[in-house]
Acyl-CoA thioesterase
Amino acid sequence: MNKLLIQKREEISETRVAKMVFPATTNHYETLFGGIALQWMDEVAYIAATRFSRKTMVTISTEQIDFKQPIPSGILIELIARVVHVGRTSLKVEVSIFLEQLDSDKRTKAITGHFNFVAVDENKKPTPIFDDENTQ
């Protein structure tokens, strides 16, 4: 695989999404419900994987998700997804969630995790990420 091509695709596929944590997404402790955090992380990881490969991608697994601190209601978060490993038919995306105080520049990493995807063809079978059409 062409290392310059991979580096270029990693750069253009980085995905950033900002969200507010509202009460409808929190648990009984008034912090972001873990299942919602995982859903948002999978969504942003999927976008990064698809932007990288320009193929149909499906989540095949997650790796350790580290919840470093609770995310309170009323805070702004930013999800950042980056492709960190590329195989023949699969790739790995690292997703981090950062907290941002609305009234200051303070920024803290709250959650990090890895999501694994595989490229699939029209028959839902694994297909190479790079082929003649997208290796230029």
Notes: The longest helix spans residues 34-53.
